[in-house]
Amino acid sequence: MTDTTIAHASPTKAGFFSAAALQKAVAFVVLIAMLAYFSVATANFMTQSNMIGIMQATAVNGVLAVACTFVIVSGGIDLSVGTLMTFCAVITGVLLTFLKLPMAVGIVGAMATGAFCGAISGTIIAKFKIPPFIATLGMMLILKGLSLVISGVKPIYFNDTPNFTMISVDSVVGQVVPGFEIPNGVLILFAVAVVASVILTRTLPGRYIFALGSNEEAARLSGVNVDRWKILTYALGGLVCGIAGLLIASRLNSAQPALGQGYELDAIAAVVIGGTSLSGGRGTILGTIIGAFIISVLNNGLRIMGVAQEWQIVVTGIIIIVAVFVDMVLRKQR
């Protein structure tokens, strides 16, 4: 792929940058407005324990949303991220609880499992030309079934790995600054976001991901091995899902095989709210993180106010539709 073509696929192109910046700014304003509203509406919202709960929920959904960002920017979709997260948690449970292996092996095993499953999805899409929606829907069901089979339809507890909670629940910051109990899972979310942002904006693989989403056929005619980069993109997303699996397993101190389905909706919602275009070719990690916090704050605030969970789902669906509509309007203006 020539340097000129890569430059045109770059997310720093003026039109893309201005649209993405506008949507990020709007999302950030919405987040601040929601925090202000719920703080006034209920006295229990701004408590330390509730803020920690929001941060822990955002850590899991935010990491999953980062995984979705890679795929969606490339012009694809991945409906299997939630069950892949669960499957990686179950594999970690097998390695640590059943096989009694060191925690480092469990961590590497979760990420390797995620990357492998992501690569399988990418191969099905790239080589067999199965639409991403269908391929990842099938993978979602496969992974859900395998999680139940491998675990024996029972949770796998990490009681024999006492340090496992340090991944998500414990607070290194709180040990240094008493009273500032930011969970380690949030620090991992920010670390994942920084690395993902660098990959997307500062590396050649990131430029190829944007090129695939902008115009796949043009990228192919420019000499890009489209199939290989699709597979690598889904593998990268899967690896990030493995990290999410570690976070949720550490938070619950168990691998829950029936958990996972439905998480993909919040993750995709966070990506769309953050300004990533569902048609591919445009998006930022920062916008995705803002979107993840919006979803967590919204769900938490509505729950504290006593709004039924089914109505929370309705509100999330409305937000997704509005976000997609805004993206369509901005695309027409460009």
Task: Please characterize this protein's 3D structure.
- The protein is an all-alpha fold and 334 residues long.
- The chain has one domain: ABC transporter involved in vitamin B12 uptake, BtuC, CATH 1.10.3470.
- 74% of the residues lie in helices and 1% in strands.
- It contains 14 helices and two strands, in the order ααααααβαααααβααα.
- It has helices at residues 3-9, 14-41, 48-73, 81-98, 103-127, 132-151, 172-176, 184-202, 204-214, 216-221, 226-252, 263-273, 285-304, 309-333; strands at 156-157, 254-255.
- Strands 1-2 form a two-stranded antiparallel ribbon.
- Helix 2 runs parallel beside helix 13 (285-304) and helix 5 runs antiparallel to helix 6.
- The longest helix has 28 residues, at 14-41.
- The two termini are 25 Å apart.
- The model is unreliable at 1-17 (pLDDT under 50).
What is this structure's SSE topology?
Elements: H1 3-9, H2 14-41, H3 48-73, H4 81-98, H5 103-127, H6 132-151, E1 156-157, H7 172-176, H8 184-202, H9 204-214, H10 216-221, H11 226-252, E2 254-255, H12 263-273, H13 285-304, H14 309-333
